[in-house]
Amino acid sequence: MFTAALDQYSADDAADLHRNAYNAAFYELGLSWYWDANTDDDLAVAAGGRKRLQHYLETCQAHLLKVYEADFLVEAIQAAKARCYETMTASGTRVTRSVNWAEFQRGEVGV
């Protein structure tokens, strides 16, 4: 599903696009998290989005695991990330390092 969309991007651009989709998902879910390139480097110990999220939750957001099951949080974030990624690639979004997610969401809602 994502492979065709990624063909138009370099590896670095694709990584930025996925990171931006995660950041949009965090915003959508009301999480005040922001992943930058340094965060990506720190999370490189875990391969794959689900494992990176699990690792991030365990190391940086462990307090949430006292209230929510890790699988629930990972599923919610992954589903939101997939929606954001699809919207970004379908609209031909250029890869940028800084995106105003509030403006992005206002455009989607039509406000």
List key phrases describing it.
63% helix; 111 residues; mainly alpha; globular; 6 helices
What does this structure look like?
It contains 6 helices and no strands. It is mostly helical and 111 residues long. α2 (11-28) packs across α5 (70-90) and α4 packs across α5 (70-90). The N and C termini lie far apart (29 Å).
Uncertain segments: 1-6
Supply the number of helical segments: 6
Q: What's the average pLDDT?
A: 81
Report the C-alpha radius of gyration, rounded: 14 Å
Write the layout of secondary structure elements.
Blueprint: H1 3-6, H2 11-28, H3 37-42, H4 49-60, H5 70-90, H6 101-109
Helix pairs in contact: 2-5, 4-5
Structure in a nutshell:
The chain has 111 residues and is an all-alpha fold. The protein is 63% helix and 0% strand. The protein has helices spanning 3-6, 11-28, 37-42, 49-60, 70-90, 101-109.
